[in-house]
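Notebook p. 47: complex prediction with D-serine.
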Amino acid sequence: MNKLLSEVDPQIVKIAQKDLARQQNALMLIPSENYASRAVMEIQGSILANKYAEGYPGERYYNGCEFMDEVESLAIERAKALFDVECVNVQPHAGTQANMAVYYALLEPGDTILSMSLSHGGHLSHGDAVNFSGRYYNVVTYGVNAETERIDMDEVSRLAQQHRPKLIVVGATAYPRQFDFAEWRRVADSIGAYLLADIAHIAGLVAGGAHPSPVPYSDVVTTTTHKTLRGPRGAIVMCKAEHAAKIDRAVFPGLQGGPFLHTIAAKAVAFKEASEPAFKAYQAQIVKNAAALAARLTQNGFRLVSGGTENHLMLVDLTSKYEKLSGRQAADHLEDAGIIVNKNSIPFDKRKPRTTSGIRLGTPMITTRGMKEEQMHLIADFIAETLENRQKTAIKRRIREKVAELCTQFPIYGYLSAPKLPE
Ligand code: DSN
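Predicted complex, C-alpha cells below:
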C-alpha cells in the first residue's frame, strides 16, 4: 500500500521513462498536444482520485463529498472568470463527451446539424459518418473554398437557409485561420439555430487573448483542456445560463457517471495558470512561432493550405513539392529524424485519410519548451532536409542528432533528471 511505484512496478516505470526520453529528445509538433505542468500532474495523480461524487456540488449521490464540492466549485468559478462565461460544466471526460452532451441537451435524434466536414478540417464528433454523431443526427457539412482554402461564409449561409439546421457547429482540428464568431452568430440567427463553438484547439489562444472569443456569440462553447490550454486530459462545456440545467443533466446522469475529481482539480490548476500574465505571453509566442515556422517552410518550397497560418497550426500540402510522397510516409520519415508530426488530409485530398497528402504541424509544445522564432527557422530547415533526403538513413540519423542537441537546450520538466536516448 505505501510502496513507491518503482518498487511495485518497475516495468511500467521503465516504459514511462522511455516516453519521457522520447518527449525530451524529439520535437513534438502535433498541434493538439502539450506538456502539462508539474502542478497539473501532481494533483491529477493525487488522493482526489479516490472519491465517487456523482451529482454536482451540494447535490451528490454519495456522502463525504464536502471537499469534492470545494474542488469542483473552484474549477467552475475559475473557468467562468477565465473565459468570461455565464455557466460551466467541468465534468466531461473528453472533447467528444462534451460535444455529445450538447447534442443530447439541445437536439432530438434526427435533427439537422450543420458542421465542417472532417476531410476539410472538422472533427469526428461534429457528425462524421463513422461517429455516433453522424449516426443519430442528420448532418450537413460545409468545407473550405477551393481557391482560398478558407471557410466561405456565403456558402455556410446558403447551406443554413437550404437545410435549416437546429444547430450550427463552428470549430475545427486542422484549420489555420481565425473564426469570425460574430458572423457565425448572424448566420445562426437568420434561421433561429443554436450556435456551438468547439474551441478545443484554440482554447488557450482564446484564454490568452491571441484569438477572438466565441463566448459573446455562442449558445454553447466546448473545449478540451489539454491542448493549447495546457491542462489535464479532459473537457468542459460553457454556456449561457438559459442552457445550463439541460447541459448539466446531459453530462450527468445523461451520459456520464462519477466525475473524475482528480482531473477536475487539475483543470482548476490549469485555469489558474492560464489566468496569469505568463500564459498570455505564451499564447502570443505560440502564434508568432507558427507564423515563423510557416514562413520558413514556404521559403523551403512547401505550399501551406490557405497560404499560411493565423493560429497555432499549419497544414503542409506535400504535393506542392513531392507528388509521390504521402503524408503518412512523410510523418514516418520525420519521426526517423526525431520530428513528430501527424499525417492529415488537405482540402480536396485525392488520397485516403489513412494515407493523406498533407502533414499537420503546430507550435504549442515547442513553445512550452521556450523555443522562439530562431528555433522555428532551424526546425523548418530540419523538416525540409529530412524530406529531401528521406531515403538516406545516415542523413536522417545526423538530423536526429542535431534535433536532440537542440532539445537539450530546451529541457522539459527541469525537475526530472535529463533522460538519455533509449538504445
Ligand atoms: N485528436 C484531436 C486532434 O488531434 O486534433 C482531435 O480530437
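Notes: Residues 277-299 form the longest helix (23 residues). The radius of gyration is 22 Å.
Next step: compare against the earlier run before touching the bench.
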